[in-house]
Design brief:
By secondary structure, the protein is an alpha/beta fold. About 25% of the residues lie in helices and about 25% in strands. The chain contains eight helices and 13 strands. The longest helix is centred in the last third of the chain and has 14 residues.
């Protein structure tokens, strides 16, 4: 079956590899308020999808449905057998920093290991291999030396590193990131995207962002979410394409002098 919005090339790839996630005719929202209608999307093991769209268009609702935080009003979300692990799906999630309670008395090490809770009982010790993986990830992200610090003592960039370790510690097959460029550590933001490019060799990535200029270097395709979902294969996005998808996103153009390209003012 060919899902709407998929190119023939991408559809043919589905015959070669198993889809991690199949979203079919999904409608989702809150109470009587329908935010998304008729969403179709197939997520492949090697996908790196940039999720774009206006505020209020349904990007967060889509993430919540994928993460099991809300129940679809209609349609289905089906996960491959390889996506199951313990009591939850093998999805890593990096939330926006403003959703983190800095006052909560927990250390960096505890935050990282909390990513393992989905496959553990509420009460139980972490194994030596789990602790070792947590330490290895913190060392890789450059935060091993502050692993016993309280999360409230960290900078925005350090919190981002800790949350990325938490998202990866359970060895997910799909990594979801919600506006990672909202973090204050611009240096690590660049490192993050390079890290994601390497991670994409081992897992699929769904990246929500308003910054097309940055993510266009890394993503392989786009999902424009604005009440529905339009899939666009390839990383090149034009103003004409966005207009046809009713996706009012600002285009950033990079050159010798980086600049922003805006639509003409209507007099």
């Amino acid at each position: 079956m060919t899902l709407p919005g998929r190119s023939p090339e991408h559809t043919n790839n589905r015959n070669i590899m198993e889809s991690l996630v199949e979203i079919s005719n999904l409608s989702a929202g809150y109470g009587q308020n329908v935010v998304l209608r008729g969403v179709n999307l197939s997520i492949q093991p090697d996908d790196f999808i940039g999720v774009i769209g206006p505020n209020g268009g349904g990007k967060t609702t889509l993430l919540k449905a994928l993460l099991g935080l809300i129940t679809p009003m209609a349609g289905e979300i089906n996960f491959a057998e390889s996506m199951t692990g313990g009591s939850a799906h093998r999805i890593g999630y990096l939330p926006q920093i403003n959703n983190i309670d800095r006052k909560f008395p927990v250390t960096v090490f505890d935050v990282v290991r909390s990513g393992l809770m989905s496959r553990k009982r509420l009460i139980g010790r972490y194994s030596s291999s789990e602790n070792e993986r947590s330490n290895d990830l913190m060392n890789e992200m450059g935060i091993f030396g502050i692993r016993h610090k309280a999360i409230g003592e960290l900078s925005g960039g350090q919190i981002q590193r800790a949350l990325l370790c938490r998202a990866l510690v359970n060895e997910p097959r799909l990594l979801i990131l919600d506006e990672p460029n909202t973090y204050v550590d611009n240096r690590f933001e660049r490192e993050l995207y390079e890290k994601l490019k390497l991670l994409n060799d081992k897992l699929a990535i769904l990246l929500v962002s308003h910054d097309l200029g940055t993510i266009s270097t890394y993503v392989k395709s786009y999902a424009c979410v604005n009440g529905s979902l339009h899939y666009h294969s390839g990383s090149a996005v034009t103003p004409e394409l966005l207009k046809s998808y009713e996706c009012p996103i600002q285009i950033i153009s990079h050159g010798d002098i980086p600049h922003t390209v805006l639509h003409k003012h209507i007099s």
